[in-house]
Design goal:
Layout: E1 7-11, H1 20-27, E2 35-40, E3 46-52, H2 55-64, H3 73-77, E4 82-87, H4 91-105, E5 112-113, E6 121-124, E7 132-135, E8 144-146, H5 152-165, H6 177-181, H7 189-192, H8 206-220, H9 225-240, H10 244-262, E9 274-282, E10 285-294, E11 297-307, H11 314-328, E12 334-336, H12 344-354, E13 360-362, H13 368-385, E14 392-398, E15 403-409, H14 415-419
Parallel strand pairs: 9-12, 12-13
Antiparallel strand pairs: 1-4, 2-3, 2-4, 5-11, 6-7, 6-8, 9-10, 10-11, 14-15
């Protein structure tokens, strides 16, 4: 996306009651356009990055210290020595630019998700014949990443089964169309075991292999029912053609997928893709919890500790946390939020562009989604308070269509446990 902007640097005095009037005079000539504003300290370090649809109104509001100014700026004002403005065409462009600048500079007074290296992702490498493997360090090199995932055991099992069933290569050979045509490589054991079609020796075209990779991505995104049905038909066809080894192999792989999904809690009878978000904040610490539902089943839960300025409004914390999380995470078809984040419309537009399918954002007021949001909120509070490692208890929600059973950390034990 091409930005049109102009940069303006204004030295600001130390903001106190005695100079607020002088500062207001300087801000009189500021533009009304949407864009990003950057606060720097006396050493030139960036300490806060924000955006606004009308920056003049936003900045004057900070300096006048009106009743609705954000509390964390009382701590920030004493350190501001310089102001930089970047003008964009729309509020949406300002949101994208703000997100990129925060990720690059990590200002002290912005909300920051702490980098958690323990969260695993699935990576589809940007190659002619892509490899697919687990990684804990997503790279911005054109590769596709799916996750993060909360259940590592499930993820490893799913990766092993799908790579074999869809015959995705596991080798590290630098395969290109030219190198394969020159006959530089030999087929490995995976080919003889039926787990790879050996594109390294030209047994499979670039288009056929790309189709298998797309099938893999569809399955892990929860949209693989057609692919599973096609593989079942392939199994029956192999059996009719007396290729019993191939039929048995497909049967075992399909059974493994069924066993993997059977252990997951059913959240919805519909094959929905949904993230349920919980948020808890205490002083300068916070916790973001995302409960992942794929194909109507609870896939897992991920949590990220946060650093933020004290008394930052919750809608602003939620908006910045979502921007940072979904910059490196795939966006499902539905997001269930505990409350409305600040600057909701441009954030929703950005999320819809990040998503690979139609996106619905919900802030429930009744029904089972409220129960799930409450559960995510409770998990966030427990993680923040350090109680999640204590004895877990099962919290059950019932409905006419299905039952939800999810283990959450909590103090104490249920009455049934005490009796036992």
């Amino acid at each position: 996306m091409a930005y049109w902007w102009r940069s303006l640097s204004i030295p600001l005095p130390r903001i106190t009651d005695s100079v607020s009037e002088s500062l207001s005079d300087k801000l009189e000539n500021l533009p009304h356009d949407p864009g990003v504003y950057i606060f720097r300290d006396s050493k030139g370090r960036i300490i806060y990055i924000g955006k606004a649809k009308v920056r003049r109104s936003r900045l004057r509001k900070y300096c006048e210290k009106v009743s609705d100014a954000r509390p964390q700026f009382e701590l920030l004002f004493a350190k501001i020595a310089d102001l930089e403005l970047i003008t964009t065409k729309t509020e949406y462009e300002a949101l994208i630019l703000e997100s990129n600048l925060i990720r690059k500079h990590k200002p002290r007074y912005n909300v920051a998700l702490k980098d958690d290296k323990s969260q695993p992702y699935l990576r589809i490498v940007n190659e002619p014949f892509p490899r697919i493997f687990l990684t804990r360090r997503p790279e911005q090199d054109g590769s596709k990443h799916y996750g993060p995932y909360g259940d590592l055991r499930y993820l490893k099992g799913l990766l092993h089964v799908l790579r074999g069933m869809l015959q995705i290569r596991t080798c590290n050979l630098p395969l290109t169309v030219e190198s394969v045509a020159r006959g530089k490589f030999k087929a490995c054991l995976e080919f003889h075991l039926g787990r790879c079609n050996a594109p390294c020796i030209g047994n499979e075209s670039l288009e056929d292999y790309a189709r298998r990779v797309r099938d893999f991505a569809s399955v892990i995104k929860g949209r693989g029912s057609d692919i599973i049905e096609r593989l079942q038909n392939d199994m029956e066809k192999a059996s009719d053609e007396l290729r019993f080894e191939r039929a048995a192999q497909l049967r075992d792989w399909l059974a493994s997928i069924e066993n993997l999904t059977r252990r997951q809690t059913i959240i919805s009878p519909e094959p929905v893709e949904r993230d349920i978000i919980g948020l808890a904040v205490q002083d300068e610490e916070g916790c973001l919890v995302v409960m992942q539902v794929r194909s109507g089943r609870l896939l897992g839960r991920v949590q990220y500790p946060m650093r933020l300025a004290k008394d930052t409004p919750m809608p602003e914390v939620l908006a910045q946390a979502m921007q940072q999380y979904y910059t490196q995470s795939s966006v499902p078809g539905e997001l269930v939020l505990p409350f409305e984040p600040v600057d909701f419309e441009p954030l929703a537009q950005w999320l819809r562009e990040q998503a690979e399918t139609k996106l619905s954002l919900r802030i429930p007021s009744r029904g089972e989604r409220v129960q799930m949001v409450d559960l995510a909120q409770r998990n966030a509070e427990l993680q923040l308070n350090g109680d999640a490692s204590r004895v877990s208890q099962t919290r059950t929600y019932s409905s006419e269509s299905h039952r939800i059973e999810i283990e959450v950390g909590a103090e104490g034990r249920s009455a049934r446990d005490r009796c036992l």
